[in-house]
Fold this sequence. Notes:
- By secondary structure, the protein is mainly α.
- It has three domains: 46-282 and 309-337, Alkaline Phosphatase, subunit A; 426-514; 591-899, no CATH class.
- The longest helix has 33 residues, at 859-891.
- It is globular, with a radius of gyration of 32 Å.
Amino acid sequence: xxxxxxxxxxxxxxxxxxxxxxxxxxxxxxxxxxxxxxxxxxxxxxxxxxxxxxxxxxxxxxxxxxxxxxxxxxxxxxxxxxxxxxxxxxxxxxxxxxxxxxxxxxxxxxxxxxxxxxxxxxxxxxxxxxxxxxxxxxxxxxxxxxxxxxxxxxxxxxxxxxxxxxxxxxxxxxxxxxxxxxxxxxxxxxxxxxxxxxxxxxxxxxxxxxxxxxxxxxxxxxxxxxxxxxxxxxxxxxxxxxxxxxxxxxxxxxxxxxxxxxxxxxxxxxxxxxxxxxxxxxxxxxxxxxxxxxxxxxxxxxxxxxxxxxxxxxxxxxxxxxxxxxxxxxxxxxxxxxxxxxxxxxxxxxxxxxxxxxxxxxxxxxxxxxxxxxxxxxxxxxxxxxxxxxxxxxxxxxxxxxxxxxxxxxxxxxxxxxxxxxxxxxxxxxxxxxxxxxxxxxxxxxxxxxxxxxxxxxxxxxxxxxxxxxxxxxxxxxxxxxxxxxxxxxxxxxxxxxxxxxxxxxxxxxxxxxxxxxxxxxxxxxxxxxxxxxxxxxxxxxxxxxxxxxxxxxxxxxxxxxxxxxxxxxxxxxxxxxxxxxxxxxxxxxxxxxxxxxxxxxxxxxxxxxxxxxxxxxxxxxxxxxxxxxxxxxxxxxxxxxxxxxxxxxxxxxxxxxxxxxxxxxxxxxxxxxxxxxxxxxxxxxxxxxxxxxxxxxxxxxxxxxxxxxxxxxxxxxxxxxxxxxxxxxxxxxxxxxxxxxxxxxxxxxxxxxxxxxxxxxxxxxxxxxxxxxxxxxxxxxxxxxxxxxxxxxxxxxxxxxxxxxxxxxxxxxxxxxxxxxxxxxxxxxxxxxxxxxxxxxxxxxxxxxxxxxxxxxxxxxxxxxxxxxxxxxxxxxxxxxxxxxxxxxxxxxxxxxxxxxxxxxxx
Length: 908
């Protein structure tokens, strides 16, 4: 592919990847709002917020097998106050969950990429509005709310927030998970004892608007490691319940039982049955919420709330301003205060929300022409002020009851207005992105036709000039309009990019470099690709559809490759059926079974030996290659046993040991380099790479996914054999080495693309999708089990674990990529043509998913549509780099010592 086209492809697809966040998921944060203070005497002087990370609502509210509640003390407190389900939103991760409950707003989906460590406070929070806040808990959560970034970019601690955290080494998956929670409770005991002897600290604690925050990580760690259905999960719930009783007694004693303390117990997110979270399943978004103490009403019925509603509730209990970024709605049913205070608090909630609406409205107005700006139509500011004044003047009981209904209506209208201005530019940006997609796809098609017809010469300047000047004039006109209406920066990007793409397209069409008759031979392949792409889109919604597609791919040899031997066609169909079984199995992660991993390792050794024996007749005797093969077989056997040893020691709450971790890291690190020392024959190199990668994959496996990788390796081997024999290139496959010109970056001179090329590109993408669907679900990363990292690390290391996860996901890709590299080399497939066809398919799929993205409805549906688009776009970018990585693995060789020459000399 030409350099300019490659660079343009990278830029365009990075823009496409960014587009979903700019169009659908813009950060809800805006600045410039004026805090709205609460009016009246608050019911509580202090508030205790306990966040039990990863606690599921059903586990809290339902009884166990013996008919008892798992947290009896907290259930008793719930009867003295109010309880309900607090619903969070995707991504169901710790940072967004705590931001919602303490900041009052839901971060955009990209917030999960902001990391966990040392996040600066770039939003208002209950802690920020308090007079004093003391916080104990995880170093991944507490610092989020205790630091502020200055204008110079430096981080400073907020003076009135006092964080207390343990070190990250304390978050050990092997040690008792509840130890982190005991640390929190023990540190508060020490704090309480110190406060009794410190008059200055006592004075601060006896102030109003005091918050005590406790973050308990133990349940989250327990669920990840041992799953929510385990006995240990129930046992740790009981232990936390006992320590909560002690904590409440200590707090009441510290403040002399003055009945001015409000207690809130909740969770940031739930957890699936297989111990993960991040998506939108009911078990993940439903969390328990219990409130009792000062200002809390006693309700016999459960009162469910949204997670962001905790923020205005805490603000009303303490009598402080609601954080300015909050979109929470004050749940009046939780308040046991006078009607006047309820109404005043609700009015403050409305004013705070409409203050945000006012700022958002002015922001959008400043970015538009006066004649083109369309304000929210249901209510203007004058009408709002009149209705608020009428509510403030209402005094009778009936008026108060009517006022509550009007307040609820106003808040609903305010939230609608916020949504309207949040999505104000959406349709405009969607049209621009669609133009970018279409422009790029048309340009790719033209490039394919141009390369295959041999018309690649540059046109004369006299031909280029009109298009160049026209493009410059169009860009200048667009920029003039954008500058005049003070458009945001992203509008420049999404408006100028389609101008550039369509200028190039028009140049190629009208400058005589493309002729309509050139497209004739490509109509049938294009129609076939379009139909196949629609099938690929369908597989994203129905996981078993991947199995159906796999079976159909196994049958193509019976229609268009009948000249192949019956034995070969049956073998191809057999491996297709074998791989097709895996999407029908449960998603990996629901349970751990290290013995399945060990069996898969043994079968891998058998398969490796069989494949090497089959190809022995093709190879020259090479002692170095033979030694590498023997080493790889021994490493696979070692990895099989390491997985079992690690699992047994983790179950016994014992660290696997330094030798296990070091050995695993060495195997993982050297697995990508060992094939460089193997044979130089192209097919043998594929087998060598597969042998090394399966060893690393075994160390990251927890169940039957190791069988899937083995089946995929064998199937890709059969794909190589079928394609080479179909192209009558079997002799070439036997003798081709990695040094042959045909196996390097340019496999053949440009030629007319045909149906075989389209089929190869389609199967390439389909097998990559199979790599996702074979053991999991690409709608989320929920199939990832932290147990997959235990051979490498047992202490919580999010970035290290993320690296291991990415490697586990990438290994099946590399298998498919290396097999495709062999096919390209042996069958002399033009690299540029194949790359463009692959990009065309993925871009066509991405265009579907871009318009299928949801921002309303169930959060499971929203998260799924986001995942679909991101996965396809990442796939588009990844296939480009995958070709480069596969080429590197398949083309490098290191010769330590020419043992063959030494043996021949010794014989002489």
